[in-house]
């Protein structure tokens, strides 16, 4: 869904280094003490491994049932719907931690599971560049955070370019969200990679642009052959295989996009413009608090399925910690934030966060409306 804008050098924005109260140093020390006192690692454990098996099963087993003809006819579409849930689950709960290096202490395991992004049609490389490097560093900073760049028909920042149709975006946005992974696997990755290659970011991060491009082309060809071509070759009717493939991505796109939107484009989090404020008044850690929100902290089911991304504040402050630890880490963060009198944006329920997101979209499309 992300439409890559012109990539600017990371040095465009600088965060303040002044933290006289030593908020993050205090918080970091307390979180480290928690893991030391509990004698547990910051990476995944058996619960993470079980979740990985479950998410991969949602993705692989229905597909095998379709390929082998165990499931045929209209029921094929039900299998593709489950595959869509699996795509979202892999992206939110497996790939995400692996690409952050927080899934395992073993670098090879992280690298291997980060490729689950490629297995669902995306690119691990462009994800790391767009998400780990740009989004996590420059959260909600227009021109640098691609998550809030201007999208086709969407204005996700109060600093974005205004179009007349944006006044209706709170109505049609959920439909566009469903198209996110279809856009992602077909052309977004290529558009992003071209921008990173031209800006020099690919080389700066130690990669060869030509080699990365060839790997992406090969990965995409393999994906489309296996998940779209192979069913047709093995006799799955095209009027089930093609609509089923699209259905899977409509479901995955909606789930993934909504979860990420609820973290930053809701009432509470701040928005900035890199061109207007190249030097931020807050430290990076305090900036994360001011631009990020949590939701549904008490829902074990949501926390399990979305990979702890409902604890987005904790994730942004500690992306190197596996998400299975976030509920406990959140207790430390909340107490420390309250002690330092800093903001902590949180919505109790998923529907409350979603309604807030729609209200923000409406306000961004109607400048006369104030964001709550």
From TrEMBL:
Q: Which UniProt keywords apply?
A: Membrane, Transmembrane, Transmembrane helix
According to the entry, every stretch annotated as the Fatty acid desaturase domain falls at: 78-347
Q: Which GO terms fall under biological process for this protein?
A: lipid biosynthetic process
Which residue spans traverse the membrane?
A: 52-71, 77-96, 108-127, 171-187, 221-240, 246-266
What molecular function terms (GO) are annotated for this protein?
oxidoreductase activity, acting on paired donors, with oxidation of a pair of donors resulting in the reduction of molecular oxygen to two molecules of water
Provide a GO CC annotation, any one.
membrane
Q: Which PANTHER family match?
A: DELTA(5) FATTY ACID DESATURASE C-RELATED, FATTY ACID DESATURASE 2
What protein name does the entry list? Fatty acid desaturase
What organism is recorded for this protein? Portibacter lacus
